[in-house]
Amino acid sequence: NVAPHSYFNAISSDPPVLHFTSTGEKDTLVNVRASGEFVVNIVGARVAEEMNLTAANFPPEEDEFAWAKLSDAPSRTVSPPRVARAAGAFECTVNRIVSIGNGNMVFGDVRNIVVDEAVMRNGRVAPDLLDPIGRLGGSWYTRAARDLFEMKRPTWDAVKDSADEDAG
After folding, report:
1. Do residues 135 and 141 lie in contact, with contact meaning Cβ atoms separated by under 8 Å?
2. Domain around 149
3. What is the CATH number of the domain that holds 120?
4. Which of 35, 39, 41, 120 suits 74 as a labelling partner, its CA being 20 to 30 A distant?
């Protein structure tokens, strides 16, 4: 199956671990528990409508890929396929599942990362080319790359020197 999950985040970079949260016992959670594997696809605005269609509460025997007219592509390290048109995909094995209230946090050890070359610039993912979307709540989404700005992290020495200059 394929389904959007708006509660998704990176947990650790070393080792690479991410998580998503499934509300209730949906097909994705059932499949993850059965197989111990899953793929998190990163979708840009170009796939928003198809992604949204997969949010419908499909019966387990229905193929969301087919209904959304999405092609799948084989994963390299896990059995579940990835979305062929996704800008990126994280192939994961289940680390643990933590149930809290009606939510189930699925933690996954990242086994492979696939990135579409079309969203790369100078060896890095370019946010403007990725054009990621994010769910804000309810039916509201945002195109995160529309209003980009960059802020360099200061070093402690730079912060301290700036304070010394202001005091002097």
Report:
1. yes
2. 8-167
3. 2.30.110.10
4. 120
Q: What is the pLDDT of residue 104?
A: 95
Taking the C-alpha atoms of residue 34 and residue 8, their distance in angstroms, rounded to an integer, is 20
Q: Give the number of other CB atoms < 10 A from CB of residue 155.
A: 9
The overall pTM is greater than 0.85: yes
Would you say 133 and 142 are in contact if contact means Cβ atoms under 8 Å apart? yes
Instruction: Report how many domains make up the chain.
Output: 1
List b or e across 38-68, with b for residues whose CB sees 16 or more CB atoms inside 10 angstroms.
bbbbbbbbebeebbbbbeeebeeeeebbeeb
Strand order, beta sheet including 37-42: 8-13, 16-23, 103-115, 88-100, 37-42
Closest by Cα among 42, 51, 39 to 3: 51
Distance CA 107, CA 94 (A): 6
Mean pLDDT, contiguous 10-residue spans, the chain (168 residues): 85 97 90 97 92 92 95 98 96 98 96 97 94 88 85 92 77
Phi and psi angles of residue 103, each rounded to the nearest 5 degrees, phi first: -105, 150
Flag whether 47 is in a domain: yes
